[in-house]
Specification:
Layout lengths: L40 H12 L12 H19 L7 E4 L2 H14 L9 E5 L4 H14 L2 E5 L9 H7 L4 E5 L13 H10 L3 E5 L21 E3 L12 E5 L27 H10 L2
Parallel strand pairs: 2-3, 2-4, 4-5, 5-6
Antiparallel strand pairs: 1-7, 6-7
Bound molecules: pyridoxal-5'-phosphate.
Length: about 280
């Protein structure tokens, strides 16, 4: 009787051997790393103490709180440096990329003095559904006018099209950095310059590019946004997690639709899980 073949494990950028494919045949290779990844061992190692030992609520004043609080503080600083945020406190950890996107888009528009007075948002057709849904929510529930720009055959948005669509009522332009399906990198720097020149805020969904493209160093690829969101599903960190950040703006307002307990700068409710944040930071590289 021949013994069963040893199933191959999935390739991993860090050399880590991934999980067995659920089809059980051992013949498939998992390539959908833009959707999610197995957890990198370094990420797992960094997180484990915060699940098992330092599991305290970072907001607690008893002695379980400080280790989690310090790890959270460190993770916030490291993420802030990674993305080139102006203030560590402007980094908001969220539960998913979709939550980051919703906080950024809804928060910016709902805080606008143009709400109810012709508020306008520009986005583009190949955005992640989280972005399109946030825009549709603003249109359907708050009467916001939404322009959805089309892309060319390579998936690119034409900045000229953005320039033509911008009006004095445009509150926000939301264009992603790297597309999750095609990998197309949008000319977000140019789009941001145009939008800012007309007084509009810019949101950039950088879920697929943070940690892959250095947004701080290259002028062409510099993060253009005063608000951004980055769930990082395509990196070997924690899939169901996210973060957003926002620059200081007089128009940055309350962002969560769920009553907040006053934690994470009161932008979203709920306890902050230090283990996830530590894993997020290690997954960022
Ligand atoms: C570009 C982009 N934006 C947003 C999201 C939503 O992230 P999440 O699934 O964490 O809500 C994803 C998820 O793959 C994505 O690729």
């Amino acid at each position: 009787m021949s013994s069963a073949p040893t199933p191959p494990t999935s390739a991993h950028p860090t050399g880590h051997t991934g999980a067995r494919h659920p089809d059980g045949t051992g013949l498939s290779v998992y390539l959908d790393y833009n959707a999610t990844t197995p957890v990198d061992p370094a990420v797992l190692e960094a997180m484990l103490p915060f699940w098992a030992e330092h599991f305290g609520n970072p907001s607690s004043s008893h002695h379980y709180g400080p280790p989690a609080r310090q790890a959270l503080h460190r993770a916030r600083q490291q993420v802030s440096t990674l993305i080139g945020a102006t203030h560590d406190s402007s980094v908001v950890f969220t539960g998913s990329g979709s939550e980051s996107v919703a906080l950024a888009i809804r928060g910016a528009v709902l805080a606008s003095d143009r709400l109810g007075r012709g508020a306008h948002v520009i986005t583009q057709a190949t955005e992640h559904p989280a972005v399109l849904a946030a825009c549709a929510y603003l249109r359907d529930l708050h009467g916001v006018r939404v322009t959805v720009l089309q892309v060319d055959s390579t998936g690119l948005v034409d900045p000229e099209g953005v320039a033509e669509a911008l009006t004095d009522d445009t509150v926000l332009v939301s264009v992603m950095h790297a597309n999750n399906e095609t990998g197309t990198i949008q000319p977000v720097g140019e789009i941001a310059r145009l939008a800012h020149a007309r007084g509009a805020l810019v949101h950039c969904d950088a879920a697929q590019s943070v940690g892959k493209i250095d947004g701080r160093r290259s002028p062409d690829r510099r993060w253009p946004a005063r608000r951004g969101s980055s769930p990082r599903p395509g990196r070997p960190g924690i899939g169901a997690d996210g973060r957003g950040w926002c620059g200081r703006s007089r128009r940055s307002g309350p962002t969560s639709s769920v009553a907040s307990t006053g934690r994470p700068a009161a932008r979203r409710p709920g306890r902050t899980a230090a283990g996830h944040r530590r894993g997020r930071r290690v997954g960022c590289g």
